[in-house]
Specification:
The chain is of the alpha/beta class and 385 residues long. 33% of the residues lie in helices and 22% in strands. The longest helix has 17 residues. The relative contact order is 0.08.
Length: 385
């Protein structure tokens, strides 16, 4: 649901009634992950997607039915070899879909509206919903804040269950990870009674682009398209301007290494060094390669890269630290224009994040949609942290 929060928040503010279908379970190859959502309002307007098209029609019908009868349901979709023309995932995976009506009198409406507001404002929170358990509990849940407080309830006389669910959701919120947890109906941690989907709202990951050049302008657009909060940093005020980078969230006029040292970063942060000037690159990369960020790439020719590596060794970086540097930056797409180069950089960022190989899928033998366990194995094989 949180992937369509901006539009759903507008629906809620307008007082619309709608039903939300959320991916609550994934097995095997599936095009969308946990928490992906499709919503349908009373007028039949639909937004979002749960399967990339495979089962959208059937899920749309489930949403309209939920609006009509006011009941939450869970439906499983998979692929049947016996009936390949039945509604299902042609990619061979299995997904569970939770459909929740958000009508004017629905108990979940207040919680949903608060969750949508948090998501629209990029405020951290976790939304829980029961996806397996007694029919009267399906779809019910809580909105949990970073300080451990929560709103909503699973019903009367469910205080213990509410506290346990909030504690479990808070743990996933601190980890920044959407997932499922199992608890008992009485609120104990014994698995088997209830399964909760915990959709975690986190601020968008940062992309910091160093070097206010034409390639940076193209990369800002691609970064925004991928959902990053994008900052452009350059020490030269004549180049680091809002007129040159209207789509950037922030523009910093500062020496790159000094800015990086003072600005918040985390394990999701992407750093793109486009300055290809040793006086900027070396101090910056000396800081960056010691930090636990997701991706560090630097622009330049192979000759520039070799000289840069030599200088970085001289300032004390280890071979293990240097191995984290993606340079020359980007995948080999034959890119020539700034826009094509930005696409090649984005492709490498995505491949690094998800354990992709970067080879054409036509020639690959790996699964197209990988589960967490498969990603861990692939990263170990490729030697990717």
């Amino acid at each position: 649901m949180l992937d369509i929060a901006q539009e759903l928040s507008r629906w809620a503010e307008e007082g619309r009634e709608f039903a939300v279908a959320t991916v609550a379970g994934v097995s095997g190859s599936a095009p969308r992950g946990l928490g992906a959502a499709l919503a349908v309002d009373r007028d039949g307007t639909a937004i979002g997607s749960v399967s990339g098209g495979c089962v959208e029609g059937a899920v749309y019908d489930l949403c309209t039915q939920a609006l009509a009868d006011g009941r939450s349901v869970v439906e499983r979709f998979g692929y049947s070899d016996e009936d390949a023309f039945a509604v299902g995932l042609t990619c061979g995976g299995i997904i569970d879909i939770l459909v929740t009506p958000v009508t004017a009198d629905a108990p979940v409406r207040t919680v949903f509206r608060s969750a949508l507001t948090s998501a629209a404002r990029n405020e951290p929170a976790a939304l829980t919903q029961v996806i397996r358990g007694p029919a009267e509990l399906l779809g019910k849940g809580l909105l949990v804040r970073p300080d451990g407080t929560y709103e909503g309830s699973h019903g009367d006389d469910q205080a213990v269950l509410d506290r346990t669910a909030a504690a479990q959701a808070h743990a996933l919120l601190e980890a920044g990870r959407t997932g499922t947890v199992e608890i008992s109906e009485d609120g104990s941690l014994c698995p088997g009674g209830l399964t909760l989907l915990v959709a975690v709202i986190t601020p968008p990951p940062r992309m910091i682009v160093f070097g206010a050049i034409d390639f940076a302008a193209a990369l800002v657009g691609v970064g925004k398209f991928l959902g990053h909060h994008v900052t452009v940093c350059d020490a030269r005020p004549v180049f680091a301007t809002r007129a040159r980078f209207p789509d950037a969230d922030d523009i910093a006029v500062d020496w790159p290494h000094r800015y990086l040292r003072s600005t918040p970063t985390d394990e999701r942060t992407v750093l793109c060094v486009l300055t290809h000037d040793a006086k900027f690159d070396v101090p910056l990369l000396n800081e960056a390669l010691r930090m636990p960020v997701a991706y560090i790439g630097a622009m330049g020719s192979r000759r520039t890269h070799a000289d840069r590596e030599r200088r970085l060794r001289e300032v004390g970086l280890s071979e293990r630290e240097l191995a984290r540097l993606r340079s020359p930056i980007g995948l080999d797409l034959g890119a020539r224009t700034p826009e094509e180069t930005a696409l090649s950089i984005a492709a490498e960022i995505i491949a690094t994040r998800h354990g992709g190989t970067g080879v054409p899928l036509t020639d690959a033998q790996t699964p197209i949609h990988r589960e967490a366990g498969q990603l861990a194995v692939l990263r170990a094989v490729l030697g990717v942290a």
